[in-house]
Design brief:
Layout: E1 2-7, H1 13-25, E2 30-33, H2 42-51, E3 57-60, H3 70-83, E4 88-92, H4 99-102, H5 109-124, E5 129-132, E6 137-141, E7 153-157, H6 160-169, E8 172-176, H7 181-197, E9 206-215, H8 219-224, H9 227-237, H10 251-254, H11 256-265, H12 286-289, E10 293-296, H13 298-310, E11 315-320, H14 328-339
Length: about 350
């Protein structure tokens, strides 16, 4: 099992340097940086990561084809790959954060990502590209420098169509925000079907899960602390709950007060909005919470990871979620010192 850490651009430059060095020293394999509106720029942050680490891979989790033209994404990631050969990964997704504020219409996400990935790869191969797609367009465009070879592209997704697309054309998938064997097994089936369409082997595709991590000696407190995050996931995905792998029609009754809140507030404008779900946390059962997060005592978390490894998950992208009295650094240390050694497995290779 590989372990990655997801950071949002809330950290200043020196704090990011310190976090990068801590994450590397604790044995994590990947540092993922959110391209989240309206925080610090992801590519500036990853340049800091590249220059202040050795060995650890790093990437966006995730950029999108709407707020950044794919050609500019190709330029930015190729530039990072020059700073740290063999370590840069492009994580790309349909996005959504800040789109309402920016007036962006996220149309045809499957088409948009397919066109974006194809365009980026052609540009990295040194081709002159003209695209008149349904979402992506460019005319007689080429990079002004030679991109380093072999930059992996990982697609981050939650929906069935995009997970299948990852199996068809990407080097890996980051499935978010699911953490149970039941839900991730369904995601793996879709990934395999997508791979079969292109005649690809699953052995060449990274299967990662993006999860919020809460770990403490008090397992119940760790799980309870994640209720608000699950509410945020449900808020962000409404009204498309029927596309979620763990959806139950009972939610329409059990979560009726929360649905009324969502209808009156519209989509969240960013991470800062998620505090607004705190009034509804008692509506979210522990069973529902544990479909979406990694939480509990070190022993409980380790056992959970072993179950995920048994169905082919080979990387966990962890967003540290501290309890009162903890810092993100405390969570990362506790996981590295008390959970990683309990998961007996062979190490997975780098993402290529």
């Amino acid at each position: 099992m590989r372990y990655g850490v997801l950071l949002v651009g809330e950290h200043g430059p020196q704090q990011l340097v310190d976090l990068t060095q801590l994450i590397s020293s604790l044995g994590y394999h990947t540092l993922w940086y959110a391209d989240e509106r309206f925080y610090r720029d992801a590519y500036v942050g990853l340049a800091i990561v590249a220059l202040n680490s050795k060995g650890i891979q790093f990437g966006t989790c995730a950029t999108d084809p709407y707020s950044r033209h794919p050609a500019l994404t190709a330029v930015a990631m190729a530039s990072l790959a020059e700073l740290a050969p063999g370590r840069a990964i492009l994580g790309i997704a349909a996005g959504g954060s800040g789109f309402e504020a920016l007036g962006i219409d996220r149309k045809k996400p499957v088409t948009a990502l397919s066109e974006a990935i194809t365009t980026i790869r052609k540009l990295w191969n040194g081709e002159e590209v003209t695209v008149e797609g349904k979402v992506v367009s460019c005319k007689e465009l080429s990079l002004g420098f030679d991109a380093p070879a072999g930059i992996p592209i990982v697609l981050a997704a939650t929906g069935p169509q995009l997970i299948s697309l990852a199996g068809e054309i990407a080097d890996g998938i980051i499935v978010g925000d699911y953490s149970s064997v039941r839900t991730l097994s369904r995601a793996r089936d879709l990934l395999e079907k997508g791979a079969a369409k292109s005649g690809r082997s699953m052995s060449n595709i990274t299967f990662a899960a993006r999860v919020n991590l809460a770990v403490a000696e008090d397992g119940k407190a760790a799980k309870d602390s994640m209720r608000a995050w699950v509410g945020a996931v449900l808020w962000d995905t409404y009204p498309g709950w029927d596309m979620l792998f763990d959806y139950s029609p009972k939610w329409q009754v059990d979560l009726e007060p929360f649905i009324a809140f969502i209808r009156s507030h519209g989509k969240p404008r960013g991470i800062a909005d998620y505090d607004k779900v705190l009034d509804f946390v008692n509506l979210f059962s522990e069973e529902l919470v544990m479909e979406h997060v990694l939480a509990g005592t070190p022993d409980q978390v380790a056992e959970h990871i072993k179950q995920l490894e048994s169905i082919g998950v080979n990387e966990l992208v962890l967003f540290p979620s501290p309890l009162p009295g903890q810092s993100p650094e405390d969570v990362l240390r506790l996981f590295a010192e008390r959970v990683m050694p309990r998961v007996a497995s062979s190490s997975s290779p780098p993402i290529t």
